[in-house]
Amino acid sequence: MEGFPVLLTILLAPVVAAVIMAFIPREEHMLIKCIAATGTFISMALSLYVYFAYDQSLGGLQFVQQVPWIKDLGVTFFLGVDGISLPMLLLTNLIGFSAVFASWNVNHRPRDFFILLCLLITGVMGTFVAQDLFIFLLFYEVVVIPIYILVIIWGSTKRVTKEYAGMKLTIYLLIGSAFLLVGVIALFMKTVAVTGAPDMSFTGLAQAAQGLSDFDQKWLFALMLFGFGSLLSMWPFHSWSPDGYAGAPTAVSMIHAGVLKKIGGYGLIRIALYVLPVGAKFWAPVIAVLGVCGVAYAAMAALAQKDLKYIVGYSSVSHMGYVLLAVASLNVIGLNGAVANMFAHGIMAALFFSTIGFIYEKTHTRWIPDLGGLARQTPRLAVAFMLAAMASLGLPGLVSFIPEFTIFVASFKVYGGLAVVAIAGIIITALYALRAGANTLFGPPRPEYDSLKDIRGPELVPLAVLGTVLVVGGLLPFLLFDMVNSGIVPLMAEISGALQLGGSF
Amino acid sequence: MNVDLSLLAPEIAMAILGLGVLVLGLIVPKGSRHGLGWVTALGLLGVLGLTIAGWNNQGSLYEGIFIVDRYAIFFKVTFLTAAFLVTLGCMRYVDEMGDQSEYYSMMLFATLGMMVLASAGDFMTLYLGLELMTIAFVVLVCFRRTETRSVEAGIKYILLAGMSSAVLLYGLSLVYGVTGSVAISEVGRAVTTEPVPALILGVAMLVAGLGFKISAVPFHMWTPDVYEGAPTPVTSFLAVGSKAASFAILLRVFVAALPGLWAHWTMLVAILSAVTIIVGNLVAIPQTNIKRLLAYSSIAQAGYILVGLVTASEAGIKGVMFYAFLYVFATIGAFTVAAYFYNVTGSDEIKDYAGLSQRSPLMAAVMVISMLSMAGIPPLAGFVGKFYLFKTIVDNYLWLAFIGLIMSMVSVYYYLRVALVMYRDEPVDHTPISLSGPVALTLIITMVATLVLGIYPGPLSEVVNTAAHSFFLP
Lengths: 505, 474
Fold this sequence. Notes:
The complex is a heterodimer of chains A (505) and B (474). Chain A has 505 residues and is mainly alpha-helical. Chain A contains 21 helices and 2 strands. In chain A, strands 1-2 form a two-stranded antiparallel sheet. In chain B, helix 11 packs parallel to helix 17 (398-423), helix 12 runs antiparallel to helix 17 and helix 13 crosses helix 19 (458-471). Chain A: It is found in: Endomembrane system; Membrane.
């Protein structure tokens, strides 16, 4: 497939599907859903191809496409993937495809729903394949509007109204990105002052940023940390996450918890750390402390929840704490763990949310005391639920065990005490995950749920796709780790000099 | 004296067009004047072509009284594009008001005033263009003369515009008194960094006078009332054209005539910009009328554009021009939707927009895209515009960049409230709104332009670069 713009095709397939859907009469629900499924399937299949066709021994950026875009800003339309962005791209498409099927029963204005969903998926994908900061930003906020509209129309009002949830998601993301934007513009102007020629590509910025003073690196990194951190639900900027997921429709919860917030972690590594290593060194202890606070606080908060979506919402904040701790360790093992954990958590959270979505659809409640014994009535649903719960607590043999283990190994070397606290978080995770599973699925079956239909047909797709990845990723961890490693090692090699020289906090 | 009249060709054509439409209105019987809108629109397209054709034909007339550089040409293209889109989108609205020929000719004369303003090379030409534009707008603002609100808006506008013109004139006369010249280039040479108090007073008055035109806080009080009371197409042309023209002359006066005093006015402009951004965005939040909401948002937009003046550099001017151009599409898109919606339902209240996404997906989409472009959300044009504006100030005015970008995210809050009503709520009246051809065309042009300029701004950015560059050529 030499010369075939495969990344662009992956990116545009859902957009094309959205455009086609716009011309289909709004009553033809089945056709609309099939088109959405086809669009996302093309992207998923092609990204699987790219994942396995990527030459790890060669490393670096592959499948590159470059077109000069805006001359006076030094912007190129620059797409490419390496070992860090490929797992994220694949994750997006696995979840995107599953999300279409998790929403198979949306019958209220489905045309609008699937158009917005496809645009959302494209926006998320774009951030992972862009290798130019400006193009990255273009995609970064595309997602805001589809998410807002999806939440306010198809969301659910429980503890908070869906309007509140939608606005909270949006405002947090935007305020974070306002700081990020100031940081990006200032970084751009300062690198132009160093080299004299504008260049917005990540590599160009990283080279130019070596000429920045330590002070500049530090405050620019702080802005980016705030921007990306609030997207990653870094404690204490996490409060949008449980409320937002609770109000959002299933597909949005899946995509948001599964991949969208990973843009924060990805940006932190790919942009903030790579371009501003001295700043990263300075702020690493702060990131570690905030990460561990997030782990502990969110795990405790999850313990106290009775709404299934809130449990998973807090649990995802807690898992992102591990990612932050791993990033803060600033070594190859830690960053491998961070990227791998983002992938693992993405699959797990998406499966969790899709299962909860089905439970809610069928029983009309997510309130644990009102549920119980569902394993008897809906066994397949129960399998999906338990798979996700087990992955959440890091059961060996599932995809999330090795990433978490790696993170502890890496961070224990650097932050002994903090790592111990983080490891203790696992116990709390086990507690709430198992308790949620036990109270929802086991115990005496309730007669009112006897007539429930188990998931079947298209509803099984999320379980099949995401469940397979959970197991395969756990049994064959090298599939994920070799890939991530091939991206992290060269990145760290480039910045290791700066990391050793730079002053610490 | 050798006068190259080809430089004046667009203005001459415009004057002929304006008079022609007026005369046509007298000849044609009252019932069959619906075609005048098309005459105007196509005429404007012709003048637009003529202006673009003159891109390489730069020069100045009558010893610098009238300057035709690419800077001026670019702004003229902006005005003409705006006038064309407004005319295309408002035909039905105007037909319902009646008196088409007067309306269109006033619109053309206002555009002519803007064109003169963009080319003004001395204070007399400046004033001539400014008054031509203002007086035409006064007539247009109270065009729905049987409605009290429209007439009230007209009275407010004429009183305050007169007042601001007086202040501006006084400021110009003070500058003239100190420097002994009315030509902008000569004033630029005469003004030194050593300020005379009278000159400082003159500059302050210029800021006030032009601040009124661009509706910068604290000279913005007229904006919401006039925007609300005026016929909606006039509002949109006032928000786009009048503002862009005033920015054109603001830059010309401050950067070309008063660079010597840069150190004195730069902080003033920065503060003015910050206050305008903050007040415009915050007061927009509680609005319930779409036109008032857009009025406050346009105040905030003026604040963003002012950012480009702070550094008085080529990059800043480029930012202003780029933003002014894309602002045309965003604003006209939003106002065309509002105008058409008013035609169909007779309401400007936001709550009546309930379910618009189901009654007319195109109108709802254009409204959302236009508003988000104003808020600067990528990948829409407003984002690139803000990038160009704010990149000039991050070195010295980082606080202003923070205020600007955070407030633009705040603005998303009130824009999204409109989206909420249009998308979430079920319509009270389910009948679909069918768009007439020209309105649909206007909406599609604005939407496509906003998207394309946001995703692929490269070509426009290069055109603007050469235009901004010509500003500093002798």
